[in-house]
Amino acid sequence: MPPPAAPLLAGRAVGSRRRAAHGRAGGGPCRRCQQVWQVARVLGEALVKVGIPLDLPLLRAGALLHDIAKAETLKNGGNHAALGAAWLEDLGYPAVAAIIAQHVCLQRDPATLEVPGEIELVNYADKRVRHTEIVSLAERFADLRRRYGRTPEAGRRISANEKRSRILEEKIFQPLKFQPEDILAFIHGSRL
Questions:
Q1: Which of the chain's termini has less CB crowding within 10 Å, N or C?
Q2: Cα–Cα distance measured from residue 173 to residue 169, given in angstroms and rounded to the nearest whole number
Q3: What is the pLDDT of residue 28?
Q4: pLDDT value of residue 4
Q5: CB 68 within 8 A of CB 3
Q6: For residues 120 and 40, what is the distance between their CA atoms, to the nearest angstrom?
Q7: H helices within 66-151, ranges in order?
């Protein structure tokens, strides 16, 4: 069952969704989700400028809500991407649910993408944030290996996801005039 709060869509917070969704007393989306949104926002705005159609309010909702079920699954077990997607689907937001469902692992091969969409941007942005710090894919996947790569199977899954993420990174940045390492400069406004 979804949390008793409504989701954030098109930039509007409804009720106490923010506190309820992240299990935090302080309010507001979790700091990590805010960082994922900053990466997704920079990329989304840049892609729109070069003519790639994206729904930026949908991108924002997906980025800020991608870990909506994380606290629940840390407490009770389960797959936070699948649970969060189910919650948003039940609340009547299938497009946001699709983003949440694939923020850990894309269902389709990024090599087959012509242009990235909201799902791919949130998936990639999630891979660029380690806790609350924006990092490279190499740094993020090194951290994932340390924390979750305890078995050979887990290590293989992480390596396969890293390979897909590197292909996705190439697809995202292909039409852009900046590189992955430039994201922080854009977020801090020194390259806008």
A1: N
A2: 6
A3: 60
A4: 42
A5: yes
A6: 9
A7: 70-76, 80-90, 94-101, 118-127, 137-148
Q: Do the bridges between strand 129-130 and strand 133-134 make them parallel or antiparallel, or are there none, so unpaired? A: antiparallel
- Other C-beta atoms lying within 10 Å of the C-beta of residue 124: 26
Structural contact between residues 21 and 66, judged by C-beta atoms closer than 8 angstroms: no
- Please give the pLDDT value at position 52: 97
Task: With beta carbons less than 8 A apart as the criterion, state whether 37 and 132 touch.
Answer: no
Amino acid at 61: A
CA angle at 39 for the pair 51 and 16, rounded to the nearest 5°: 110
* Cα distance from N-terminal residue to C-terminal residue, the chain: 42
- Spatial distance between the Cα atoms of 81 and 84, rounded to a whole number of angstroms: 5
Q: In Å, how far are 20, 26, 42, 98 from 117, measured between CA atoms?
A: 28, 32, 14, 11
Please give the pLDDT value at position 24.
46
Positive or negative, the CA dihedral 51, 57, 58, 59 is positive
Q: What is the pTM of this model?
A: 0.85
Cα 173 to the chain's mean position, in Å?
17
As a whole number of angstroms, the distance between CA 121 and CA 99 comes to: 9
Residues with Cβ within 8 Å of residue 39, at least 6 apart in sequence: 124, 125, 128, 129, 134, 183, 187
